[in-house]
């Protein structure tokens, strides 16, 4: 593993690149969820990176601006900015001598999944993996409620973290499904049966977007964070198999 920092709009995005023994290698970029870090819940991103690198796939995991160890202010968080960061990261990873730039893939968890789906529509990738994608983050009804909370309190709150007006203003410009249609490769979407954020409407939206290229995998008895040891192991197994089959 080596450190690899990416410059984006005057900020340093800090990350780690896991390289396999044989290079140049196919690679996948991992996008963490809202208020997360490049390790993700239960160090799942670290575990996935080690497993894939052992199978010949390079993995880059990074902190979005304003989170983890990257520069920036969390108050400036918007989905569009995260998409822009992800595109910059893909270009930087593709320039690394240990990576094959024509064999890049994307994975995202929760809001990182929404981000990855939008970035994949703008820059071709081999495959797209969505863990419990938070398309609801830009839903019109959610945005309306969020804007009302910002007007009353100065911020909205989610998971103990503040969300400001810039996020809501940006959400108005995004259609989670129409704006993801540019991706033409395979997609695997994994979610838990108890995850309220991945509603039937969200699933229908992604089915309309990706058609028969979408493979949906359901893990029973867990919510948004895949909260059991067996569920997380199954999540890693499903992801590893999918990524390797399309690397």
From TrEMBL:
<dbReference type="InterPro" id="IPR029058">
    <property type="entry name" value="AB_hydrolase_fold"/>
</dbReference>
<dbReference type="InterPro" id="IPR053145">
    <property type="entry name" value="AB_hydrolase_Est10"/>
</dbReference>
<protein>
    <submittedName>
        <fullName>Alpha/beta hydrolase family protein</fullName>
        <ecNumber>3.4.-.-</ecNumber>
    </submittedName>
</protein>
<dbReference type="GO" id="GO:0016787">
    <property type="term" value="F:hydrolase activity"/>
</dbReference>
<feature type="domain" description="Serine aminopeptidase S33">
    <location>
        <begin position="24"/>
        <end position="135"/>
    </location>
</feature>
<keyword id="KW-0378">Hydrolase</keyword>
<dbReference type="Pfam" id="PF12146">
    <property type="entry name" value="Hydrolase_4"/>
</dbReference>
<dbReference type="InterPro" id="IPR022742">
    <property type="entry name" value="Hydrolase_4"/>
</dbReference>
């Amino acid at each position: 593993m080596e450190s690899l920092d990416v410059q984006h709009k005057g900020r340093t995005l800090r990350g780690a690149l896991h390289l396999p023994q044989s290079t140049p290698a196919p690679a996948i970029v991992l996008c963490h969820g809202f208020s997360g870090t490049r390790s993700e819940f239960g160090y799942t991103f670290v575990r996935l990176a080690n497993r894939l690198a052992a199978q010949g796939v390079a993995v880059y995991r990074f902190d979005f601006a304003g989170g983890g160890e990257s520069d920036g202010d969390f108050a400036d968080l918007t989905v569009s900015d995260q998409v822009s960061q992800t595109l910059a990261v893909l270009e930087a990873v593709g320039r690394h001598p240990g990576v094959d730039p024509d064999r890049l893939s994307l994975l995202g968890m929760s809001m990182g999944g929404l981000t990855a789906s939008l970035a994949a529509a703008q820059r071709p990738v081999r495959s797209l993996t969505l863990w419990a994608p938070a398309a609801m983050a830009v839903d019109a009804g959610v945005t309306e409620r969020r804007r009302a909370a910002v007007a009353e309190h100065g911020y909205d709150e989610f998971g103990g973290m503040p969300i400001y007006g810039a996020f809501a203003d940006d959400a108005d410009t995004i259609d989670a499904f129409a704006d993801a249609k540019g991706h033409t490769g395979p997609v695997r979407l994994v979610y838990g049966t108890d995850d309220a954020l991945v509603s039937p409407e969200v699933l229908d939206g992604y089915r309309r977007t990706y058609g028969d290229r979408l493979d949906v995998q359901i893990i029973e008895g867990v919510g948004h964070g895949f909260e059991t040891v067996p569920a997380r192991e199954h999540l890693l197994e499903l992801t590893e198999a999918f990524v390797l089959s399309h690397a």
